[in-house]
Write a structure and sequence with these properties.
This protein is α+β, with helices and mostly antiparallel strands. It is 53% helix and 15% strand. It has 9 helices and 12 strands.
Amino acid sequence: MRLLPQSLLWRTFLLMALLLGLSVVSWVQIFRLYEREPRSVQIATQIAAIVNLTRAALISSRPENRAYLLGELSQSEQIEIYPVEPNEKLEPLGQRPVFQRIEELLHDKLGAETRFASARNGLPGVWVSFVIEEDEYWVRLRRDRVDPNPPQQWLGWGAAALLLALIGAYFIVWTVNRPLKRLTEAARAVGRGETPPAMSDGGPAEIQTLATAFNQMASDLKTADDNRTLILAGISHDLRTPLARLRLGTEMSSDTTFRDGMVADIEQIDGIIGQFLDFARSGQDEATPAEPVDLAELAQELRGHYESHGHPIALEIESTPLMIQGRRPALKRALHNLVDNALRYSTNEQGEADITLRIGTERRFAFVEVLDRGPGVPAEHSERLKQPFTRLDVARGTADGSEGGAQGGSGLGLAIVDRIAHQHGGRFQLLPREGGGLCARLTLARASA
């Protein structure tokens, strides 16, 4: 379980909140440190004045009037006077620096014999002793005169200031993070082969520079992709015209062996050119709007096509209909490439192939699997085979024009499937099949999800 959030917004905000909180705590401690001495002097002066005035009043008054005077002091000034009794239970005033400093100041003002207590016989307060002739008395003051509670408004204003600072910090972090989030979404769109809208130039200078550089990069990539598509389409178109003439001349040849070989070579070249065109068109599929596509219906149509050409395919459908949101021509092209790849590498000498087309669901996703009994693909080469113009000469046939490898393709079939998978927000995997062979798995999000 991760305790820290993963987003830049909340990580930065929490860091700023921590710094603001530590700053507030530090300022409170500094305030208390510098406020301690003047506060101690003020409280000690006040207590000393009360004790001296009380002692002077008692000394100057008549003995018969002292009880009345003590009552008046208790009611009007909330000062209580008690004579010292034997065996009193006293509790010390406290170990806080403020209390210790007050005791030092009162010893200087009232004398070294002055005693202090925070409770006397269980009665709390601030107790200070004084002597009149040979009699000792206690003056009891309320505790809040020495240790007043901080005013509630101070706490309220402090909390309000901290809250406003946190809101400001969140707004600042959000302002910086918003263009970064848009840039992340645009970068993901570029990774899917899309052309994102141009980034706005608003915000700080650094963000503007980054947005301008990204816009230029996206424009350059779009131009390069368009040029590549144009070149591939032009080359493929220009090559097919002389190939058609070459095929016509070959079929007119009287040498049957030579003619059949040349026709096979021409058909292979024509198939490779078709893959070039498919690869060029796959980069333009984003312009086609997505629509609901029934994978089960598409698979049945695909099986009928290959059966009509003498290639029976086993079909396993988990449920029908099985709807996804996608582009039907691109998905059909991807499935054709997968089946053609399976036929190329799993057909035996009798022209038969053990191929299974499986359609099913997995949580919120639908998957299409093309399973064959060919030589398979080593796990360390599965990702490399998805790159354009990449072929594996070891496991999936030599495909290099040598003996036994004449059936090789251009190395674009699986790259086209991988690009179509990414354009649909899915993924393409090459997995080992149980019992030997290859499982080409195309996973796509279901329309209901």
